[in-house]
Task: structure prediction
Amino acid sequence: MRFDNNKYSVRASAVGRSVELQAYADRVIILQDGMIVGEHQRRFGRGETAYDPWRYVPVLAKKPGALRNGAPLKDWLLPGAIEQIRKKLAGSDDGDRQMVKILAAALDDGLAAVESACAEALADNVHSADVILNILARRRDPPPPLTIATPDALKLQRPPEADCARYDRLRRLH
Result:
């Protein structure tokens, strides 16, 4: 989005659609249908561009190569453990695709959770997206177990007795 001779990034879903701009002395807020699709510090130079790399993560699922070459993502400094994973994945054939999966998880699980999962994977000397996503899945709260009412016909009439002698008798029969 262009404003006052500068460019500001917006969420991918807003590209090519009408937006509303709220310009303040220190920031620019871009709205679409009442929802914030971009927010940046206001730029006062000419020809400057303000990117929020997180707004491009959904697009990366379709074009993971943009992680290396896309202007908003080239100089993106990620938190420590995530950046270490990024460097380790850079050498593999599907490193970009794996890194995109990790970044996409940050949109759902939060950056702190992904950072922690990456740190755990690195501590185990692993840097696979599948391992990191597995760590995240294990840390999520499990859904409450389903409670199934037991019909009266299936309820025990007599509680079981702890009698090891019965087991021994069965063993002797065979």
